[in-house]
Amino acid sequence: MSTVTNHRRINRTASGEINRKAVISFILGLLSILLSLIALIGLPVAVIGLLIGGVSLLEIRGSNQGGKYLAIGGIIFCILSIILPMILIILAYLSYMSPT
User: Fold this and answer.
1) What number of other Cβ atoms are within 10 A of residue 4's Cβ?
2) Domain ranges of the chain
3) What's the CA gap between 26 and 80, in Å, rounded?
4) Mean per-residue pLDDT pooled into runs of 10, the chain (100 residues)
């Protein structure tokens, strides 16, 4: 029996360096989702997180840093926190305007 080892690279480089902007984008994405559910304060946080996430992806592509999936997750969370209040506003408007 031979044991096959699968060496998989999980978002880190050999030096263990993760792009800090990717981490900031991920944190801002999570924070923006929470703030968008409470108030519209999440919108500016989401826009800033989206910009930082895009910059971090460009930096990661040009260097040997890790954190690609953190940056992508931050961008996804930021986009969701921009779209979620719009959907809730539309649903609230439609429920208010429906004849009863």
Assistant:
1) 4
2) 20-97
3) 12
4) 48 70 95 85 92 95 91 96 90 85
